[in-house]
Amino acid sequence: MTRQLTIGAAQSGPIPRDQSRADALERLIVMLREGHQRGCDLVVFTECALTAFFPHWLIEDPAELDSYFETAVPGPDTQALFDEARRLGVGFHLGFAELAEVDGEVRHFNSSILVGPDGVEIGRFRKIHLPGYSEPRPDHPFQNLEKRYFDVGDLGFDTWRAFGGTVGMCICNDRRWPETYRVLGLRGAELILLGYNTPSNNPDYPEMNPLVPFHNRLSMQSGAYQNGAWVVGVAKAGEEEGVMQLGQTMIIAPSGEIVAQATTLQDELIVHTCDLDATRPYKEGIFHFGKNRRVEHYGPITSQTEAEPPG
Ligand code: ING
Prior knowledge:
The chain is α/β, with parallel strands linked by helices. Helices cover 23% and strands 27% of the residues. β1 (4-11), α1 (21-37) and β2 form a beta-alpha-beta unit. It binds D-[(amino)carbonyl]phenylalanine (ING). The site of D-[(amino)carbonyl]phenylalanine has 8 residues, from loops.
């Protein structure tokens, strides 16, 4: 009997900056219910799924900036989602801006939470790779001020036993870095969940614009294959506050194959029944460290700097 897990990747279309939390949450609840109707055990929501992606513009008033953050999850803005998930018996992943106190200091994180079918938190992640910059760039059509608004995540890349397997999380830019998948893979991740807000064009490197969809696929497909894990990448898609964002929400098998992909730039749920045992040929075979990488026969590593300079 293989370990089947039916997963829904719940892409969000644009969230206007003046959309209320309640209305944004209701959109998520609608997709959660659809996931339940389609047999999902787990529904994966995107990065900053409760608000517009506010790092795309300068906010100078601290109180206004803090209004985009959650002081507690579950809390008044999200309790209805937790309650409905528990009523339906469906687990979920949610990305949100987190305002937290750490060692007596107020911290601002770009976070995600993994919640079981009983509505109870299983694990939490705080984004580690913060792209963009801390000072606005007036010549840019939009900003990426994540380095200004967020602290670097302090929880590392971790995994949890859940949904019959081992689950890890990362967020957006984390998915571009091989270390993300490697650490999660070495910690046994069979399923990696992530959300992203990715503009279709990059003002710093416009030459890369035609490659944005390819780099999105490449990052997640290679991470999945090289670590023998399922990867679920969920977009905030479409034109949000003047910024066109990539869709391409997708579910990727441990083979690296895309088995389901969104086709719109709106709220869209894609569903796939994932066999967690499909990870075995990769984890126990092709990419098994002990069987396939033995350093001793390389002999001692001699540093070139130790050698006498020529002449
Ligand atoms: N967004 C983008 C991402 O990593 C980016 C930023 C785009 C960085 C393209 C480099 C190249 O998908 C977030 N929110 O990390």
